[in-house]
Write a structure and sequence with these properties.
Length: 323
């Protein structure tokens, strides 16, 4: 007679510890920088790599250097290789990408986006396994709104928005949500476009920032949508002659330099994009769909705002590239 609470058979599951249940699945990960080039991208890469190790999938890594045209070329390369799945950190958001995604699914290649989603493409291909891991579009609006509140922004006050312009035909990305929030607050937006050379390691971002500060001495707030620029806001502020807190500054992505800038008082608020999760979960999602037939994962990586009150708790993970 079987005792209550005991079973005669212990089932085995694909996710049992030690089981490489995604073995044989070929996935291409389109990341932005090789390991060691950028702390935020390193954390994303660490997540992708850990998923590869944990699940047993076979990963190919392509490096797009934040260039929209390279992302499209890499996506085409992944399709041509007949990969089972593709993880894309997105920043293209245009018709050319939509066409490639359609082509991918037509041949059975699953595409999942990370960081910036493609709602229309996801709606069309969700049943085939397209998901997204990252913050919702509303996060940029929420960040800029909270920053405006903490900066004591009033109608007519000047705000420097340091961002990329939307690609022709694009959907605006995080910068679009920031603009919406700042316009709602009645701000006078001074737009500083990210120099395209910056993505290739060139340009003079410190000089561009200092010139913008000099030309707009009444600035109350600085907002950027770029994790790399956010990481250097403390350095840029010092170079421009600003003292800690003289201008409220906010951005996205948490790196060791950003942690330091928050502790020094130069950066007042950060939206943490959780790059480790943003790298790990798209691989997991593709594996679930390809190996198990499970629905696509659509995961919101929204995290609490980071400021001087809670940055110490996150700093150890940030230093290890595991946040």
């Amino acid at each position: 007679m079987r005792k209550a609470g005991l079973t005669a058979h212990q089932p085995s599951y694909p996710t049992d510890q030690g089981s490489k249940w995604c073995s044989g699945v070929k996935i291409t990960a389109i990341v932005h920088w090789p390991p060691g080039d950028d702390p935020w991208s390193d954390a994303f890469y660490n997540g992708v790599r850990q998923a590869e190790i944990d699940l047993g999938a076979s990963l190919t890594y392509l490096y797009a250097h934040w260039n929209p045209d390279t992302i499209l070329a890499d996506l085409q390369e992944a399709i041509d290789s007949k990969a089972d799945g593709v993880v894309v950190i997105d920043r293209v958001e245009d018709a050319a990408e939509d066409a490639l995604i359609d082509k991918a699914f037509q041949q059975g290649t699953i595409v999942t986006t990370a960081l910036a989603g493609l709602p229309e493409a996801e709606k069309e291909h969700a049943a085939q396994g397209m998901g997204n891991v990252g913050p919702p579009a509303s996060s940029a609006f929420a960040l800029a709104s909270e920053a405006a509140k903490r900066a004591g922004l009033k109608a007519g006050d000047s705000v420097l928005l340091w961002a990329r312009t939307a690609r022709p035909g694009g959907r605006g990305g995080m910068a679009g949500g920031m603009v919406d929030a700042l316009e709602k607050a009645g701000a006078r937006i001074v737009f500083l476009e990210v120099d395209p050379a910056y993505d290739a390691g060139g340009g003079d971002p410190a000089g561009a920032f200092a010139a913008a500060i000099k030309a707009n001495p009444d600035l109350k707030l600085v907002v950027t949508d770029d994790a790399g620029l956010t990481a250097s806001l403390g350095y840029f502020a010092r170079s421009a002659g600003l003292t800690p807190g003289q201008v409220f500054m906010t951005g996205v992505g948490l790196t060791p330099k950003t942690v330091q800038a928050i502790k020094e008082g130069y950066v007042g608020l950060i939206y943490d994009l959780q790059p480790y999760l943003t790298g790990y979960l798209p691989v997991f999602s593709i594996c679930r769909t390809k190996a198990l037939g499970a629905p696509a994962l659509d995961f919101d990586t929204t995290a609490p705002f980071v400021d001087a009150t809670n940055v110490d708790a996150l700093a150890p993970l940030v230093e290890k590239g595991l946040h």
